From TrEMBL:
Coiled coil: none
Family matches, as InterPro entries: AhpC/TSA (IPR000866), Thioredoxin-like_sf (IPR036249), Thioredoxin_domain (IPR013766), Thioredoxin_ResA/DsbE_sf (IPR050553)
Start and end residues of each Thioredoxin domain: 35-191
Annotated PANTHER family: THIOL:DISULFIDE INTERCHANGE PROTEIN DSBE (PTHR42852), THIOREDOXIN-LIKE PROTEIN HI_1115 (PTHR42852:SF17)
Organism: Sphingobacterium anhuiense
Protein name listed in UniProt: TlpA family protein disulfide reductase
Superkingdom as given in the UniProt entry: Bacteria
One Pfam family in the UniProt entry: AhpC-TSA
Amino acid sequence: MNPKTKKIIGNSVFVVIILLLLWPTSRAYFQQGLMKIGLFKPTLEEPEKLDSQISVHNNISFKNDKGEIVHMNDLKGKVVFINFWATWCPPCIAEMPSIATLYERLKGNSEVVFLIVEIEGESEKANKFMAGKQLNLPVYYPNSQIPKEWLGGSIPTTLIINKHGEIATKHEGLADYSRQEVSDFIIELTKK
């Protein structure tokens, strides 16, 4: 291969990589591909105990499109999967199908609750996104202040709250929640 051909191929590959990284939809597909090969495993370890963890549920609530309000205090006794996301966030978009798979696997379990929280309160955009991706997930919006222990500013952020109202695990960033170990982890929490 002559040097000119190598240069053209190299430049073409460089342009494709840049487009994949900059174009949000392409980025999401690229990230989903990386998830499928096992690069983005969620953290399933209990975080450090926080002094404020015991009372962290007080006054935290979320609202859905129907205006129904869910208070975290009312969910004690259940395992709660909470994902904080936004429609403009490529890693959030990339992991959403894996959350849908987990939801479908566990939606019949009355001891597990899913709260897919669109942090900006953009119900029209969130509903359009879910419809466009053909996802049937329970979308909520913040109805109160979210503690910094739950959402420190990075999205996506996912929490799994145990039946006692404590953070069983917290993962910031893209992750593949369709993995069997995630559903096994949640099922195990329902038994404790």
